[in-house]
Amino acid sequence: MRTPKRTPHKRVQDLIKDTAPSLLGLPLVHTTDSYRFAEVLLSGELKPTPCAVFGENLLYLFLGRPAYKTRKQSNDNLTFDLPVAIILNSNTDIGTPARVYPFDSGAFERGLYKTYFHDETILEDFELFSEQISSDKYISHFYSTKREYFGGTSRKNVELPFDGFEARGLHEMARAIADPGVDRDLPADERSSSVELQTRNAVSLSGNTLAVILPQQYLDTKGIAEAIASMGAKYIKTYDVMRNMGSREISAVVYHIARDIYLSEGVFDED
User: Fold this and answer.
1) Does the pTM of the predicted model rise above 0.85?
2) What pairs with residue 57 in β-bridges?
């Protein structure tokens, strides 16, 4: 188990503790690669796996977003790293989360967000309350609508105290465009403002799966469509991978498919 370097600050928790969770109904999403998805199909569940950051077996989920960075190989015949997004039904029970973070905790540990925070900031300074409602409180504090959170670029005016050092960095990341399909000067990294939930529990896919988004070639494989259908998924959506298609383009396509599903399901009911 991970031991913090010092006693964590609770400034982010204090900021959102009294926030009314008004943006409800976003599903949880687990995105994996095509290689690991084969194992998911065999077991019929999402299982916790060893986590190097926290030193225990954990299952990672993101609120609403199919956040994932493929390492897309230069050889287009290698398909093992193509992403598969599994969107869970909004009422799926994952148990009490082990931890909730306002971003990809692993990316923070790798220093990908260091320009937004002081050098002495530690990961545990950002841990939210270990309950699923804290994710809804967080996005309700920093975003005006669920669709705004999904695409990033918060337009909400948020009053922050001078010493809300962590929250100020989080707000700046929330104002950066998250949708990988939108052109901008900096490389898109939607994980930087995607709320992460960790659980120590396995999650059965049968009866809990709203949608699966996967490469078209995968669905053409014998038995795959039947295995996915057995989960009871309402949507089975595919994307095509063109030659020399990079990770940003693939992420953008997956995002657009997820957005269409949410629109069909009325998830963005405030728009």
Assistant:
1) yes
2) 50
